[in-house]
Each structure stands twice: as structure tokens, then as C-alpha cells.
Design a protein that fits this description.
four-stranded antiparallel sheet; 9 helices; elongated
């Protein structure tokens, strides 16, 4: 019984903290320095540098529309003079966040399916006798299927005869880009961002009533940053390359649009920043157009296109003041506090047991 009484008495005991005041300058100084370090971290890093007092939307919905403009005439030795406009040199023609601009090409005209010598530039197509060309084997990195014959390609080279599109593809690259005028072509980029979290949208085009503005302006980071029309030569130069070198064999350029908007500031200050990065110095692909002659025999014109691929990416974030300022520092903080927090009241007929803590005078004297 005594043990049970002691246990019950222990459960009903009340414990309170006792504080000891130590007059030690070293400990006191260290204590204050730690407090200042925590305060400096909160004010300097969390609030000022990282903007911890703001709410952020870092995943905006974006829309990108592109359009290339310009005209060029090419006069290749093995092809007729040809006029190129946006429908010819831009792919895809409707304009997206990835597009391709033709700056050079190799044309192989009037190909028909049949037999012909393989190109001597293809190692697997070289031969000295028929046994080097087994029937039915495709030419590795070549243009067709071996027929089993070793034939003369020209006076100095013998190659395997193939079944494929003949004559085989021309591989003579022009010494200069055939669409050199593309340096002065323009790229129109229309970009819109929508920060749905804050119901805020903004576009990169200048709001103007002048119908000739977008036909005459050219983007400049200092003198005309609101113009969304970019000269191709300026874009290539901003990426750290010369147009003549890049246009010959093609390449890839990344155009990055950054939106960093502080929505506590005027809307006019929410402007995009553009950066241009050279990703690759070679880019090409093949395409063909097909037609039939009067005897309904199929032919095609093969084009190996070299050019500049533009990859446009949009990134951004928007920030606004959050609850820390709204609830404590704003002049209407009391109103926002009442709207944000609602007192939960118990149903009628029930009482809430609540009592103020009562402290014995003796306990208070012991804690001092």
C-alpha cells in the first residue's frame, strides 16, 4: 500500500524549471554572438538573399511562336538558280520552339531506282573483283544493295554495283554557304508566360499601336530590348560564332528566355532576358521531293541540307510578399489576421474546461 501511495503521489507532482543567472562575461558574450549569428542568418540570408518573405511560382505556363523572314537566291554549279523564301528554308514552317534554318545544301537531281556504281567515298563499296561484292548485302554507310558486280566508277576507282536511287548522292560540299544572305534574315519570337499561382500573364512584345513597329525594329539588349525581332547574324555572334563558319556545315544554338518577376514592383519591370549559347557546330539532314515523268516513272530530287537549328527554352519565376509581411507588418494586419484565422467554438451545451495556471507563492520564491 505504501508503494502504491508513493506512486500515486509521484504522478501528481508538478515540476517547474529553475533558471540560474550566471554573471560570466565570456559565456554571456558567446551567448549574444550566437544570437546575433542566428538573427543575421534569418535577416541576411533567409529574408534578403533568398527572399524568404516572398511566395514564389517557379513553374509558369509558356507559349512560343516563331517566324523566319528573308529571301535568297542560290546559284550552285550542279543545280539551277533557285529562289528561297521562308516556306523553303524554315522547318517546321508553322514555327515552334525548335526550328531549322537552311544555310547550305548539296543537291542530287533526277534520281531513279535502278543500278549504278557505289560512291568511292564509301569504304564498304570499294572492290577489285566481283567476289568483294556479295549479292544482297547492303553497303555499310552506303546508298543501296550490292548486286554482285564490281564495276568502274571512274577511270581511277572501282566500286560495287548497287541497286538503289541512282545516280548516288553527290557529296561535293560548296566552299561557301549557298544561302549567305541568311545572315540578314530575321527571327520573330513571340513568348507569353502565365504564372497561374498569381493569375498573372506577360508577353515579350511591346504594347504599341504603331503597326510598323515590328516590321522595322531589331532587338538590341541596350537600345531596343523590347523588340522580339532578332537578326540571325546577331544571334550567331552573341553565341560566340561567326555566321560564315557556322552556316557552311550547320550548327545548333540555344536561345534561353528568362523571366524573373517581382510582382511587388510595377508590371513594366517584369521583362525577359535573352541569352544565346552555341551547342554544336555541325547539323544537317536529308529530304527529297518526288515526281513522275510522262511515262509515269518515279524520280526524286535529293537535298542534303545544312543549317542552324534554334532551340528556344523559357524559364522563369514570379514572387510576391507572403504572410510574414501581410500578417505582421502591413497596416491592415489585424484585418488579414482575422480573415486568415477563424476561432473554433464548441457546440452549444458543452463547456470547455479551461483554467488559468495557478502558481504557489512558495514555488515562485523557490524559482527566484
Amino acid at each position: 500500500m505504501a508503494a502504491a501511495a508513493a506512486l500515486c503521489g509521484g504522478l501528481l507532482d508538478y515540476k517547474t524549471e529553475k533558471f540560474a543567472l550566471t554573471r560570466n562575461r565570456r559565456v554571456g558574450l558567446l551567448h549574444r554572438l550566437l544570437q546575433l549569428a542566428v538573427l543575421g542568418y534569418l535577416l541576411g540570408w533567409v529574408l534578403v538573399v533568398r527572399r524568404g518573405y516572398q511566395d514564389t511560382d517557379a513553374a509558369p505556363h509558356v507559349s512560343v511562336i516563331t517566324k523566319l523572314k528573308g529571301v535568297s537566291v542560290t546559284r550552285a554549279k550542279d543545280a539551277r538558280s533557285r529562289l528561297w523564301d521562308a516556306a523553303d528554308y524554315a522547318s517546321p514552317p508553322q514555327g515552334e520552339n525548335v526550328l531549322f534554318l537552311v544555310t547550305n545544301f548539296i543537291a542530287t537531281a533526277k534520281q531513279a531506282q535502278g543500278t549504278c556504281p557505289e560512291s568511292p567515298s564509301v569504304l564498304d563499296g570499294m572492290c577489285t573483283e566481283d567476289v568483294d561484292c556479295p549479292v544482297g548485302n547492303p553497303v555499310v554507310h552506303g546508298n543501296g544493295i550490292k548486286t554482285g558486280k564490281c564495276v568502274m566508277f571512274n577511270t581511277t576507282h572501282s566500286t560495287c554495283e548497287i541497286y538503289g536511287w541512282c545516280p548516288v548522292e553527290n557529296n561535293t560540299l560548296p566552299r561557301k554557304p549557298l544561302l549567305a544572305e541568311a545572315e540578314n534574315f530575321t527571327l520573330f519570337i513571340k513568348n507569353t508566360v502565365n504564372f497561374t499561382k498569381f493569375n498573372f500573364s506577360k508577353g515579350n512584345t511591346l504594347q504599341t499601336n504603331d503597326p510598323t513597329y515590328f516590321k522595322s525594329c531589331t532587338y538590341d539588349p541596350f537600345f531596343n530590348p523590347s523588340c522580339p525581332v532578332f537578326r540571325i547574324g546577331d544571334v550567331v555572334e552573341a553565341a560566340g560564332e561567326t555566321f560564315g563558319d557556322l552556316a557552311l556545315l550547320g550548327g545548333s544554338i540555344s536561345i534561353r528566355i528568362e523571366w524573373d518577376c517581382d510582382l511587388d514592383q510595377p508590371t513594366a519591370q517584369c521583362q525577359p532576358r535573352y541569352s544565346f549559347i552555341l551547342v554544336d557546330r555541325r547539323y544537317n539532314f536529308r529530304t527529297a521531293s518526288y515526281y513522275w515523268d510522262s511515262q509515269r516513272r518515279p524520280y526524286r530530287s535529293l537535298m542534303k541540307l545544312y543549317g542552324i537549328r534554334f532551340d528556344i527554352s523559357v524559364h522563369g519565376q514570379a514572387t510576391v510578399v507572403c504572410d510574414l509581411v501581410l500578417l505582421y507588418l502591413d497596416t491592415k494586419a489585424d484585418f488579414y489576421w482575422k480573415e486568415k484565422f477563424e476561432e473554433a467554438k464548441p457546440p452549444k451545451g458543452k463547456t470547455e474546461a479551461a483554467a488559468e495556471p495557478q502558481w504557489a507563492d512558495q514555488d515562485i520564491r523557490n524559482a527566484q
